[in-house]
Amino acid sequence: MQLKQIFSKYEISYKVYQSIRVILTSISPTLATKVIFRISKGRPLDLKNPRTLDEKISWLKLNTYYKNPLVSKCADKYAVREYIKTCGCPEILNELYGVYNSVEGIPWADLPDRFVLKWNMGCGCNIICADKNSLDIENARQLLSYWGKKKYYLSHAEMQYKYIPPRIICEKYLEVLEGELPDYKFYCFNGEAKYVMVCLGRGQGHPQFYYYDREWNLLKLSEDAINAPADFNLPKPDVIEEMFEYASKLSKPFPFVRADFYLVDGKIIFGELTFTPSGGIDSGRLPETDIALGRLVKLPIEC
Prior knowledge:
The chain has 303 residues and is α+β, with helices and mostly antiparallel strands. Helix content is 33%, strand content 19%. Helix 2 (14-27) runs antiparallel to helix 3 (29-41). The mean pLDDT is 92.
């Protein structure tokens, strides 16, 4: 009987499963990664001969990226700003209003009417404020305090987050004149941005994902693209070539990284560098896509 079936049979709650993952990571990040991979994918993780993107990300996070100072710096949503400047790209940084070491240090009265507050060492720890007059500040404080106590690296054994000094950053609220603000997530392999995944509909809770190459050809690498009408296409950004160039420049030191950007009325805004998307275990990625993208990552063991 597979581990996935065992967990389903005894109806172990997600909260308990999370606790097990945390314990396993505390014992051994490698053991945790193997167990989580097996439960999620229904097959063993092959670290000796990794082939898929998730397998190679798992190899990287347990070998090359583990305790790597540059990776930890670039995974830090605040410290990465210094790296962006070092790469000669300060113009793509979002406006920074403040940096705080604790929730108590946030000067709520001095913040603008619109802003985003987020922890620098986790995922999804964001207070997105479109109108400060409507913000429940006490609830925001409680959320930030709760998030600040969590050790996010333990959930998926993403050890690059372990060594990040926790800070809260406040940045400019991003919005476009018309429509929604899409995410542009560039998949970079050994210093070259090959594809961009455009993410739409996140605010509505039903995100859609479309992969494009550098020539803006829609690739059948996601279910949304496969199920799209034959004439479906997204508007090509005028600055897409610049975005590919920025992503390639920022990814130079790394075998794999995803460089995320926003496009606000023609202006490119850096989002973050993501080294282990979904913790290296993306159950939503098509198996054939996982294999195709995996071929593009050249690991040190393959050199």
